[in-house]
Amino acid sequence: MNVPENLKYTKDHEWLKVTGNEALVGITDFAQGELGDVVYLEIETVGETLEKEEALGSIEAVKTVSDIFMPVSGEIIEKNPKLESNPETVNKDPYGEGWMVKIKLANPGEVNELLSAADYKTLISA
Predict the structure, then answer these.
(1) Given this model, what pLDDT does residue 87 score?
(2) Cα–Cα distance, 92 to 20 (Å, whole number)
(3) pLDDT for 119
(4) 100 in the Ramachandran plot: left (φ > 0), alpha (ψ -120 to 50) or beta?
(5) From edge to edge, which strands make up the β-sheet containing 49-50?
(6) Other beta carbons within 10 Å of 98
(7) 126: Cβ–Cβ under 8 A, 6 or more apart, which residues?
(8) pTM for the complete prediction?
(9) Low-confidence spans in the chain with pLDDT less than 50
(10) Bridge partners of 24?
C-alpha cells in the first residue's frame, strides 16, 4: 500500500499536498483500491468555499458511489480536467495525475490536525 510521507491524510481516506497557501486534494491508494474501477467523478463545487469535512463532490466506481470530503476548509479553485475523460487515472496514479481538486486554504492551521503518513498507515492496518 502506497502512503507517501510528504502528504497529510484524513480518516475518510483523502490526501492533501500543500504548496504555499494552496493544496491538491485526492483520494488515497487504499480508497481507490476499496472502491474498485473509478468510472465517473462529479465535482460541481469549483469557486465555492467549503468547510472542513464538507462534501466537495462524489466519486462513482463499479462497486459504489462515495462522497469526497474536504480535508480542510478552503475555496475550490480548480478541478482536474483530465479526470472528466479519464476517471480511471484515480486508480492508476492516485497521488499524482489522479488529484481531484486544487484548493486555496482558508485556515492553514487545520493542516496540522490531519494524519501523518505513519498515523494513516496505522488507521488502514487496524
Answers:
(1) 97
(2) 27
(3) 98
(4) alpha
(5) 8-9, 14-19, 22-27, 101-105, 74-79, 49-50
(6) 23
(7) none
(8) 0.96
(9) none
(10) 17, 102
